[in-house]
């Protein structure tokens, strides 16, 4: 995965790049907003437009505010952007997300959480690139036919293109977030998704204040699908889709 790190602090960037490299990322470091835009946007002077899977964007850049950079990126590119900044106030978080950032991480952060968020935003983008893109070969097929847009878990059938869910052949109406949550878990049966990761992917926001919403949606899915054991709770961690279906 190719990642653009926009960070003016060389010490922070060097340490972070080393960790990212150890985890299999190709990290390209730039120190200013202008450099970031040249790397990302084909219309910028000197741009090679090499393509990146994710952008880690600091807000306190020497030449322009990171919010402005995010806005420029989002007007012409769908590349996922994670704002990584010391600005912890709610107003800044809301502003960043409204500008089109895919996630917002406050320094200091846990490296494991940052890595999970990077993978989360890259997975959200994967369906745009074609069936199975970004997933190990054969994984979609093992998950019940995801390669053709249909997931089957026992009596539950999930049609991703039409966003329809059927249980024993009968369609079950779900809300938008209920479907997104179900589809996320169903694409990787048996894999544990942390609560923070689910909130990031489905609600596109941070964990704070959203935990109860997640619990309510899980309970609603179990009730509507009439399969209380289909979504399993992993105490203290999160949720997973039963690998055996239901």
TrEMBL record:
Annotated OmpR/PhoB-type domain residues: 148-243
Domain Response regulatory: 2-122
Key words, A-Z: DNA-binding, Phosphoprotein, Transcription, Transcription regulation
InterPro entries named in the record: CheY-like_superfamily, OmpR/PhoB-type_DNA-bd, Sig_transdc_resp-reg_receiver, WalR-like, WH-like_DNA-bd_sf
Modified residues (4-aspartylphosphate): 58
DNA-binding region: 148-243
Region named Disordered: 122-146
Chain ranges passing through the membrane: none
PROSITE patterns: OMPR_PHOB (PS51755), RESPONSE_REGULATORY (PS50110)
Highest taxon, organism lineage: Bacteria
Matching Pfam families: Response_reg, Trans_reg_C
Keyword Transmembrane tagged: no
PANTHER family from the UniProt entry: REGULATOR OF RPOS (PTHR48111), SENSORY TRANSDUCTION PROTEIN REGX3 (PTHR48111:SF72)
Protein name: Sensory transduction protein RegX3
Annotated source species: Streptomyces albiaxialis
